[in-house]
Amino acid sequence: MATSTKILSYIPRETPVHRLCGATKLIVFLVWTIVCMLSYNTFVLLGALVFGIIVFRLAKIKVSEVRFVLITILVFLTLNTIAIYIFSPEEGVKIYGTRHELFRFSSRYTVTQEQLFYLFNVMLKYFTVVPIALLFIVTTDPSEFASSLNRIGVPYKISYAVAITLRYLADVQSDYVEISQAQQARGVDLSRKAPLKKRISGLIGIAVPLIFSSLDHIDLVSNAMDLRGFGKNNKRTWYSERPFSRADYIVIAVTIIAGAMALYVTFRNGSRFYNPFLPK
Amino acid sequence: MFFGVSCFIFMDITTAVEFRNFTFQYRAQSAPTLYDINLTINKGEKVMIAGPSGSGKSTIGHCINGLIPHYYKGAITGKLLVDGQDTAEMDIFSLSRHVGTVLQDSDGQFVGLTVGEDVAFALENDMIALPEMKQKVLKTTQTVAMDPFLKSHPQELSGGQKQRVALAGVMVDDVDILLFDEPLANLDPATGKSAIELIDETRKQSGATIIVIEHRLEDVLWRKMDRIILMDEGRIICDNTPDEILSSGILRRYGIREPLYVTALSYAGVKITPEMHPESLNSMEVSDYRDVLMNREKQITPVSQPSPGSEILSFRNVSFSYDEGGRKILDNISFSIRRGEMSAIAGKNGAGKSTLCKLICGFIQPSAGQIMLNGADASGQSIYERAQTVGYVMQNPNQMICKAMIREEVGYGLYLRGVQQDEIDKRVDAALKTCGLYPFRNWPVSALSYGQKKRVTIASILVMEPDLLLLDEPTAGQDFRHYTEIMTFLQELQSQGITILMVTHDMHLMLEYARRSIVLADGKLICDDSAARVLSDPDVIERANLKETSLFTLAQKAGLDDPLNFIENFISHEKELRS
Amino acid sequence: MKINTRTIVAIGIGSAVFYVLNRFVSIPSGIPNTSINTAYAFLAFMSTVFGPLAGALIGFIGHTLTDATMYGSVWWSWVVVSAFVGCAVGLCQNKVNVEDGDFNSKDLLFFNLYQIAANIIGWGVLAPVLDILIYKEPADKVFLQGLTAGAANLITVAILGSVFLTLYAKTRTSAGSLSKE
Q: Could you tell me the sign of the dihedral formed by the alpha carbons of B173, B174, B178, B183, in that order?
């Protein structure tokens, strides 16, 4: 049973990246992920990755602080890449339209330059988002998050729902730990030692108390909020909101321009792939 | 002193809250919860609404702050005026400009990620501009002495601090009526005492009307109350000054515990009258009763020596910290529990009580020292194996219950252990009978009251036949009647040979039911003695955030030679009355 | 926009619970890469009780949070699917009566019809199509992946989601009809 409750979260520091407004970082994060999702252009992705790593240094985040997340994602990417190859060894050939075979394991499993380049791009595409997503999480004060969402146009009630998630996450997590321990004492065992039927029963044994005590909590918190006037107006102000500084405007402008350029480069010749195999 | 008179004179000027022939019935219920209430609370008054659970006292609170009918639906007849306005024409938002509510659960009320944000919550909803908001938040947090914690997260604050934040969060709106819903329920005795002081100071500073809903009378009366409104079964039984109510002896009849010194005096045959000012022991002249109090005493030897049973659990120099070399949550703890005992572990929040529980159950392992169960080192035993010896009952039954039906719930642990169905049935029946739940055996758990659910969780642990029952705050949030019910039940279990260890900061519980109290403060064991002695020791009381029992204060004020013996006498007399 | 506070809080706390269940309260099903995950049963349950908007947002916020804190990145394609499933199951809110204690096998049937449809369309169609569009992954792989995930979730919701709903409906029943024996 997973009892480690390690979680990636805000690491306060004094750096230019930390000083940017939450809304600015949110915009950068969104533009970035959209570009990385749309583009398959190797140069765009590489550029984004390199730039991400530079900002990462700027924020003075140590690799050791995010190591467990990096390991998880690398394991996932490796498995995913292997799976792609097993399912479709000729996918690269299909995409790039040429075939440069290097060697073969069997008649089905050949290794082509196109396939390798395609797999490299898949990994790159998945990985490019990582530095900036990590940065966004560890440099944004959770207190600022809801107001940032509201600032970029998310209705304030929904923004506040996110604030509630961040507020009660630790509480729910410690409820979980307590419930799970007490139920283990009653004999709940989710490990492979127990037969499947007992494990499913164990899932219920932990999930049900957690869910139902959370429902009590929902009523309580919503009463507390109603009593203090939540939702009485069409807007609200935010205590933890910070005014945009010049740096914020510059970063947002640069991000949007860079994003537009990246998309232009990507779609310039009708395909979002950069194709090195294309005869000139 | 002549409050009845002054009330009369000023009545026409302004009333804060006024119920006129007010009746309320919840939609899902077949009978009204409030019957024909007529009640006036004047501006600037400080009143307590007391009553057992189910008496309608919380419902009155919900009506005043607007949760009825905003959230709890039902049928209203009659009128309720708040600040002279008819609430039928107000919504919860306009009411919240007049009434600020501090809820019982200060964690639930703490909706912001930090203190500053939480206090600002109402201002944010009012679209107050940032500079003004910051200034108001700072000013209000200063009045409750929380301004150094503006950036703190709720997880870093104590229960008392969270309550201060909750108070600031409603005061920031400049409300003129403050409603406290069971403000003492989750606090240790010393923090509860300062909460009452804080409420008193708030009134003095702001002039606000104060309404405190509580059943813990003695603790509330730590500071002067203008009136007590006693409720039972949806009606107002009595509405009078504390002196009058305490003299009438009416409280006991309605399941409210009167202050212990009042009870002790009446046991001794002293007739309590309003002229004695029983509302506070400080204002009472008790030295006249020295002889009466002395007369009743017989010599009782306190029971602090260990019981003769064999050792069932013992800690040998146990320390615990989360990180190696980090702060020690528990430091060199040694004690032992013998078979058949009923003892308490006490101490303020954060003193390490829950860590101690987790160590006993094997949820965490000691960093140093040894835990022995039934004479054997427990370090190699898994959580599951330890559960054969120690049965752990959580504070909140809703965190344990996972089945729809009572029988299934009680039998769940046996099912997981792979016990045969007919054997399960037999043992479940036995446990249900022990817990007085047999008549309900085919009911859904959800149909039970909170106290009955607690019994279900105890039954679901007893069914596994542990030697030791470990209970976390077994009576938290219970009124006197339910408290007595649960504790009498635990005593019955003890008489059947089950060893009972309770984690608590309820001083009455320690005093009346625990043979011994093990007291923790800042991770150290500072006392292991009879509860009467613990609660008369100023040093232990101070370090463990407890409160001196008023029995001791009474004995001292009356000049008794042996206050401890006086307390022991009181307890044994109470026991006789119960049985 | 008129959403009541209770729904907002249900979205907020629901997302936190979704996250905790997703991370800690699931077991491998025996088929590689698929698990019996209580989070999706919980999502279906919350959608039914609080409606499509709450369902969509709990799926969206809860999934984003899990991705972000576990993998340090967010795969919007699958996040969108969680939101879709939450929303789609939530459409049964008016057909399934859990609040008044009138809950019966017909309600359970409707709940399951909606959740089966939602899971098949969400995981079996939407997820793979988005994966192909965004990541250009091979079709066979993503369809197989989506279908196994969908099937696992469908079965989990059928078993656990039905249990949660039944228990919840019981808490809404009054005790009037019960007698001691």
A: positive
pTM comes to: 0.92
| CA–CA separation, B306 and B516 (whole Å) | 9
* Cβ–Cβ below 8 Å for C181 and B444: no
Question: How many structural domains compose chain B?
Answer: 3
In angstroms, the CA B471 to CA B456 distance is 13
Residue with tokens 């529990």: B337
3-state helix, strand, coil in chain A (%, to 5): 70, 5, 30
Residue A219 has pLDDT above 90, yes or no: yes
User: Does the residue B206 lie in any domain?
Assistant: yes
Q: Output the six-digit token pair for C62.
A: 């809860």
Chain B residues with CB-CB distance to C176 below 8 A: 30
Domain ranges of chain A: 16-140+243-267, 151-227
- Chain B residue with CA closest to C178: the answer is B443
* In a shared domain, residues B465 and B527: yes
User: Could you give the ipTM of this predicted complex?
Assistant: 0.93
pLDDT digits (tens, 9 = 90+) for B111-163: 999 999 999 999 999 999 999 999 999 999 999 999 999 999 998 898 899 99
Name the minimum distance, in Å, from the CA of B124 to any CA of chain A: 5
Alpha helices, DSSP H only, in B126-184? 130-143, 159-171
Could you tell me the residue range of the domain that residue B419 belongs to?
311-549
Question: B304 pLDDT band (50/70/90 cuts)?
Answer: very low
List the CATH number of the domain containing B57: 3.40.50.300
Q: Note whether B113 contacts C: Cβ–Cβ < 8 A.
A: no
Give me the number of domains chain C comprises.
Answer: 1
In angstroms, the CA B116 to CA B107 distance is 15
Q: Quick one: pLDDT at residue B368?
A: 92
Regarding beta strands B235-240 and B227-232, do their DSSP bridges make them parallel or antiparallel, or are they unpaired? antiparallel
Output the six-digit token pair for B91.
């919504």
Nearest to C175 among B71, B439, B447 (CB): B447
Q: Tell me, what DSSP letter sits at residue B457? A: H
Question: Per-residue pLDDT tens for B542-553?
Answer: 998 888 889 999
Q: Which member of A2, A40, A158 has the closest CB to residue C23?
A: A2
Residue numbers of the domain that contains C113: 5-27+36-173
Q: Kind of pairing, strands A110-112 and A101-104?
A: antiparallel
